[in-house]
């Protein structure tokens, strides 16, 4: 057996993790800042009971989601290619939640897309118009019903060769969808206010046919937008960012400045009012996501 091996962190606990190598899954002691999705190098230790490992280093990450508060930051999942934002008519998903995750994904070098879940329910014209805004921005939208297994095959096809995190409000069906896609029974507990369910499991990476990877981590449930810079926030609102380059003044606040291209496009209807309002809220420190 080789002394040194590399592998993928597929489960993470408080101070240890499970690493999948080419030959087996190995329980390891983790060094600082290791998270699910990391590719690591480990040293094998043969004790009296089983093979164990000690992680000695990690490979550079292509992307990672992190909690940032002030100058402090903590990664919660690594090497993610896509974030699937679950949007539902009931409970209603706010535009603040959608925009928060679009900004978070873009600032993290991750491609966002929208999963319109619960298509078996009636969808109002306002709800459809809300989704149309994001479709017009070029955001990929997949319509399905996880509960009734409607159109889940399109999602599986889209997820091929990708590493994905699903995000959604309580009751959006994230656990149901993860179970359908992975074939694993994701344990859930009812919330005390009966508004939905939430997973209570450890951070886990599920591999599907060695092509698709789904990361389910409690750490991504609430990533505050307050940790992002003003530049990261405006760049996450791509249509507003592009317009801002044509403002008369480089320090334009996009509220009441003369020659503001953003306000001009807003008044012309080329920038959606909800998107603009969310941009101002996020930038000026009101995290309503």
Quick tags:
289 residues, alpha/beta, OB fold (Dihydrolipoamide Acetyltransferase, E2P), Rossmann fold, Ribonucleotide Reductase Protein R1, domain 1, 3 domains, five-stranded mixed barrel, two-stranded antiparallel sheet, 8 helices, 15 strands, 25% helix
How is this structure best described in words?
The chain has helices at 95-107, 125-136, 152-158, 174-182, 230-236, 238-244, 261-267, 273-283; strands at residues 4-12, 16-20, 25-29, 39-46, 51-58, 64-69, 72-78, 82-87, 111-116, 141-143, 163-167, 188-190, 197-199, 203-208, 212-216. It is built from eight helices and 15 strands. The protein has 289 residues and is α/β, with parallel strands linked by helices. The strands form three sheets. It has a five-stranded mixed beta barrel. A two-stranded antiparallel sheet has the order 6-7. It folds into three domains: 4-58, Beta Barrel (OB fold (Dihydrolipoamide Acetyltransferase, E2P)), CATH 2.40.50; 64-220, P-loop containing nucleotide triphosphate hydrolases (Rossmann fold, 3-Layer(aba) Sandwich); 229-283, Ribonucleotide Reductase Protein R1, domain 1 (Orthogonal Bundle), CATH 1.10.40. The protein is globular and about 75 Å long. Helix 1 (95-107) links the parallel strand 8 and strand 9.
Number of domains: 3
- Specify the biggest β-sheet: 5 strands, mixed, barrel
Which percent band covers the strand fraction? 25-35%
The helix-and-strand class reads alpha/beta
Strand adjacency order, main sheet: 1-2-3-5-4
**What Rg is obtained from the alpha carbons, in whole angstroms?**
21 Å
The span between the termini is 49 Å
Number of H/I helices: 8
The assigned CATH architecture of the largest domain is 3-Layer(aba) Sandwich
- Give the overall form: globular
Query: In which range does the helix fraction lie?
Result: 25-40%
Classified by CATH, the class of the largest domain is Alpha Beta
The average pLDDT score comes to: 89
CATH fold category name of the largest domain: Rossmann fold
Order of H and E elements: EEEEEEEEHEHEHEHEEEEHHHH
Classified in CATH, the superfamily of the largest domain is P-loop containing nucleotide triphosphate hydrolases
* Strand runs, count: 15
Runs in which pLDDT lies below 50 for 5 or more consecutive residues are 188-200
